[in-house]
Structure formats: structure tokens, C-alpha cells
Amino acid sequence: MKRRLQALSGCLIIIGSICFSNLAAQTNPVIEKKIDALLRRMTLQEKIGQMNQYNGFWEATGPAPKDGDAKTKYDMLKKGLIGSVLNVNGVQNVRKLQEIAVKETRLGIPLIFGMDVIHGQKTILPIPLAEACSWDLKAIEQSARVAATEASAQGINWTFAPMVDVTRDARWGRVMEGAGEDPYLGSKVGVARVKGFQGTDLAANNTIAACAKHFAGYGFVEAGREYNTVDIGTSTLYNIILPPFKALVDNQVQTVMNAFNVINGIPSTGNVMLQKDILKNKWKFKGFVVSDWASGAEMVQHGFAKDLKDAAAIAVNAGSDMDMESSAYIKHLEELVKSGTVPVKNIDEAVRRILRVKFLLGLFDDPYKYCDEKREKEALYNPAHQSKALEVAKKSIVLLKNEGSLLPLSSQQQKIALIGALANDNNSPLGSWRVCSDNNTAIPVVAGIQQYTRNFTYAKGVTVYQGIHDFIHEANINYTDTTGFQEAIALASQSQVVVMVLGESGFQTGEGRSRTELGLPGLQQQLLERVYAVNKNIVLVLMNGRPLALPWAAAHIPAILECWQLGTQTGNAIAAVLFGSYNPSGKLVMSFPRSVGQVPIYYNHLSTGRPDSVELVFWSHYSDEKNSPLYPFGYGLSYTTFAYSNLKVQSSNPTDVRVSVTVTNNGNRAGEEVVQLYIHDKVASVARPVKELKGFEKITLSPGQSQEVQFRLTDETFGFYNNNGQFVVEPGDFDIMVGTNSASVLSTHYYKN
Ligand code: NOJ
């Protein structure tokens, strides 16, 4: 459906939402009939029970609930007053609760078991931010497949992932959970992860329902402080924040989680525009919305609901179908329906959506399909999962600097000093948000390196953190104890090359872990500089869950590898890159700032009215720092080099626009390159970013080999959302850019009629 409107600038095409949303899930009439029949048999109380989700009776991923001990919960479960639980893991535990739901409740409706399977169950894959740096959608999908296979074998049938919040502020601890600053890439990565989790048959026993979260705007919390306010303009909402969610809905994601934050004055959980108007009506989302942990109740703190009862009415009327952990629905909905504050049709609608997902998962056919002890044993840490984890871990590593080709190291000649507590750590590399993992199961860098050489000596130098609770109290990080320095410095002075593994502890990112500083925590920067004073041949291996601001290292250290937190296979992956058995190919998905004062910093910004330094003072700049990032979005080196030439746009008609470029490997080893396509809409009815990623292709080239890479540009490429949320395509002049990162491109023009 297209209709043409006249606009001031000429011809404007408005493309109705139908064009891009007709992929949304269709309902199955057989299932709908079963739901009708079930709804007719359910009491109001039983319906509300389906909308109530409780934390399992032990491990919590949020503040401990104030009421509801295990005994009370078991009693509620038997009465059909719980429709879902989260944080219950393991076949035995799941079976025990499922048996109560199926055998002891009046209607025997099975529970759906939710869990934060964010980057793996037992086999831990790289943190999502790292994995996105692979730009390898197949590998990302397979990584989610590994996670789903292990989680489903432990009784889980629903993951609270992927997080598709676009993130521009490295101070926010949850940047580690997403795919970075770009909505186009974020959509592709999110869809790949949904495919991996949900597979092609949701009713199979090794696929699980995915959840697009956090709807919406949570990635834009002010000042990067967790749970803070979000206040954003309509253009950012429609063009940056919402597209990944829409892409996931179009690709059948079964559930959506709303968010803790207030967005433009309205809490997400009580947001009619987001949940009803956009998600359910415009996008035709057929699954259900779950609240975030007690986000319903938190509307009272936000000053949006009078009390818990008011919060329940606001949330359900706004389209929040399942209440996670605030007990608002179970305590108050019955009364609210009876008084007419909540129409019963809103309850029926919510329950229908929840039951629909349970039917699609096949839980009514076999509630114990995820409960097979034999499968559980075989799946966890399965060798096939290890090789997939290693594959994606290698691809996630980003080579930031390699002066004088210091890397790769030779396993023969060099005497290596390996320094840094993180090098010998088998826990931190698992990262944050790994709820079901076993502690200390990562292969540390020390062990990885041993496979390539014995000619190295290790010294800790300085701890990143001490004691079990340090991940909560960052203040406990070692800021004073330099006793390990001497050993590390002496070792460095006697070695030919120094590998320093520095960064953040695994729990310094994730929920509730915002930071105001983006340097190396504790004494690590000091140690780095002291070691550099005796040996400049340093390879800095960074392990962190967010972009860091490391201008000193970027200026002085010859080789820097961004290795993030790579999960179980960390040591093997890092060693493979250090010794060149894998040629790094990752590209950054968030800009690295020079200083925390530049944050939020992102490549797809608008132009200011004074972008250029025509004179000294009155233009858009800082007086003490450059505007540009330390490392831009899309940046990452290889052990080989690639040349770009021959950028062309060819168009036989407006619906067939093709861009081609030739990429040549002009180095002396085979390598992978992520070829990136950006556009700039030069004049538009709503100002457009200076660059927007609109396509990418990961290719492999042997030395001397050239390849022509082609991109097809459609209306979807050229269009954008106006401030009414309509997708528009305007004629006009576009810069078309292709290159190796967002700051290094070839450029040409295209006039779109
Ligand atoms: C709160 C987090 O914001 C959310 O992402 C997570 O899924 C829930 N807790 C459940 O653990």
C-alpha cells in the first residue's frame, strides 16, 4: 500500500506500516479455538493467575520480593494463581513445579519457565556486545542456538533475550547486553538471535521463545545512570529506538518485555502509545508483553500511579500482559474488574496472548517436553557447543592497533611476559548476565597461550578486584596495593614482548553497574605505564564489557586487542588471535570515546549548524578535546590490509538501485573484511544523520584477491520515519559511502527521484 502526498520539497511517498509489517505473526485458527474454549472455562481468578509471574523460590535477578515465601507460592501455584515462573532451572526443579501446575490445578494449564539466557546457559558465549562485533549473523544465530539447546535441556522454554536497546552511552552497564549504537545492525543481530533461540519450529523440544527487550528507550537513561529517566525526541524514538523491536516483531519474536524507565514522562509499563498503539495495533504483535521486574509497582515511585492497585489498572489497560514479580495483578485485578476500572476484555486479551505462546511452544501437548534428564546431561557443555563458542569468540575480537606488525606473535623465538590478573582468571571472562553458568569455567588466557608456547612467564601485577562482593561494591577494587608491581616490571624488562591483560571484572558491567569513569579500573593504568617504561613492546589485551576511554594506551601501546568477555572459550580464542592461527576480523559496534566527557558519542549523529572550524571559538567543539572518537563505529583491523576502489551506483529504474565496490586484499595473508555501506540523505523534511549504516557484507579474501561487493538499495534504504511515526521516502540527493569503517569510506552521489 503506497500513497503519494504533495510536500513542500516536492513529491513525498508515505509508505503505510502494512508494507513493512505484514510479516508479523499470523494466528492459527485451530489454536485460537482452543484458547476460546479454555477461556470459557476459566474463572476470573484463574485468568489473572495466568498473568502473574513469580521468581523461582531461590536465585533472584532483582531485589528480593518483600512478601510471598515458598510455602505461600506453592499454595498459589496449586490454586492456579501463577502462570509463569522465572529463575527456576534444571529438569528436576522444572518438573516438580510443572507437575503441580498440570496435575494439581483445576484446569491443568502448564507453566511457562522464563530465564535470562543472555549469552549461554552452561557453555557461555561472548557477551552480546562482543558477539555483535563479529558482524557475522550466521555465527550469532548459531550462538543463540547453542544457548537455546542447553537452556531447553534444563527445562527452560523462554529466554529474556535478546536485548535490542540501542546504546550510545558507555557509562550504562547494560551496554554489554546489546548490539551497540546502530539500529540497522542492531535489528539484524537481534533477528539472528531470535532465529537461533526460536528455530524454525517453536514446538520442538530444543527451541525456546525469545523476548525483545526493553520496550522502550531503556538504552537512553540519562547520564548512563541505571534506571534513570529517558527523555527523547520523536525522531530518535521512531528512527533509532523502535526499528530493532519492529524487526523482531516482523520475525515472529514471541514476547516483548517493557522497561523500568519513564519515557517522555510516561513509564514504559503504563505506556499506551508504545504497547497498544504501536506494538499491538500498528505492528500487529500477537505474542505477549511481560513487565520488567516489578516495573508495574515502580510506577508508584515514578509518581505515575497512586498505589499498587492503581499501578495494576494502569499497566493492564496499557497492554502489559504479564506482571513479573510485583504481585499487582494477583492482588488487585479481580477487584478492579469487578469495579469496572479494568474491562474484562483487557484481561481476556492478555490471557489469550499468554496462552497462545504456551500453545505454540507445544506445552499443552507435552508439558514435560523440556524435562529429560538424559538430554540435560548430553547437552550441557557438549563438545559441539564448545567449538561453536570458540568460533564466535574468535570472530568477536577487534584488533584496534598493530604498529610495526607486532602481532601476531611467533610461538618460537620470543620470550613473553604475561601480566595482569585477568590473564589468569577463569571467572571474569564469563562476563555479566550468566545466571545459570558455573563459576570458574572459562578457559583463562594463561591456558590458551600454553597451547602455542611454553616460553612465557606470568605475573599478576595487580588485582582488578578482591573478595566475593567486589562486583557489587566497585569501591573495593584495588586502588592501593602495588606490591605485585615489582615482579611484573622485572619480568617485563627481561622479556622481548609483554602481553598485558587488563580491563574490567566480569561484573563491572550488566544491570545496576553504571560507571562515571571509563578508564582501566584501579591501579591497572599505573601498572601499564610502569611496565611501558621498561619495555615498549606491549600487546594490550583488553577484557571489558563496555567501550573504554584509553587515550594514553592508544597513543603509546603498539598493539591493542579488544577481547571483551568471551565466555567459556576465552583463553583459546585470544591465544588463536595472538599467535595468528586466526586473523582478527571484528569491527566495533560502539564508538570508543577519547574521554568520558564526549559521551554519548555515536557515528550516526545529526550535523550541527556549525560543524566546521571556520574560526577559533564559535563552532561546535570542545576546547579541550577533539570531537571525533578514539575508535569509530565499524572500526577494526586485520593482520592483512584491504583496499577499496571502483565505487559505483547503477540504476536502471528507481526501484533497482545497485551499489558496487571492489575490495582487494593487498596484504600477505588471508583475511575477512566487513564491507560497510552508509548513506546520507542531504536534505530532508526531518534532518537526517551524517551517516547511516544501510548494508554490510562480510567477505573472505586470500592474498592478492579482489572481489566486487554489491548492495541493493530499496525504498527501505532511503526512507525514514517522520515525527508522526510514518515511514516516508523523499526524493533528493544522497551521499552513498562504502568503506572499512564509519570514518573511512569512499563516497559518491545518487539522486533519488
Ligand atoms: C530485570 C532486567 O531488567 C531484565 O532484563 C531481566 O530479564 C529481568 N530482571 C529478569 O531477570
Structural topology:
Blueprint: E1 2-7, E2 10-15, H1 17-21, H2 29-41, H3 44-50, E3 52-55, H4 70-78, E4 84-86, H5 91-104, E5 112-115, H6 128-132, H7 137-153, E6 158-159, H8 183-198, E7 211-215, H9 234-250, E8 255-258, E9 262-263, E10 266-267, H10 272-282, E11 288-290, H11 298-301, H12 308-317, E12 323-324, H13 328-338, H14 344-360, H15 373-379, H16 383-396, E13 398-402, E14 416-419, H17 445-450, E15 456-459, H18 485-493, E16 497-503, H19 524-534, E17 538-543, H20 551-556, E18 559-562, H21 570-578, E19 642-653, E20 656-665, E21 671-681, E22 692-701, E23 706-713, H22 715-718, E24 720-721, E25 727-729, E26 732-741, E27 744-752
Parallel strand pairs: 3-4, 3-12, 4-5, 5-6, 7-8, 8-11, 14-15, 14-16, 16-17, 17-18
Antiparallel strand pairs: 1-2, 2-25, 9-10, 13-18, 19-20, 20-23, 21-22, 21-26, 24-25, 26-27
Helix pairs in contact: 2-14, 3-13, 3-14, 7-8, 7-15, 7-16, 8-9, 12-13, 16-21, 18-19
The structure holds 1-deoxynojirimycin.
Task: Give a description of the structure.
The relative contact order is 0.11. The chain has 22 helices and 27 strands. The longest helix has 17 residues, at about 135-155. It folds into three domains: about 45-375, TIM Barrel (Alpha-Beta Barrel), CATH 3.20.20.300; about 395-600, Rossmann fold; about 640-750, Immunoglobulin-like. By secondary structure, it is α/β, with parallel strands linked by helices. Strand 17 (about 540-545), helix 20 and strand 18 (about 560) form a beta-alpha-beta unit. Residues about 1-25 and about 465-475 have low confidence and may be disordered. Bound molecules: 1-deoxynojirimycin. 1-deoxynojirimycin binds near residues 86, 292 and 511. The site of 1-deoxynojirimycin has 9 residues, from loops.
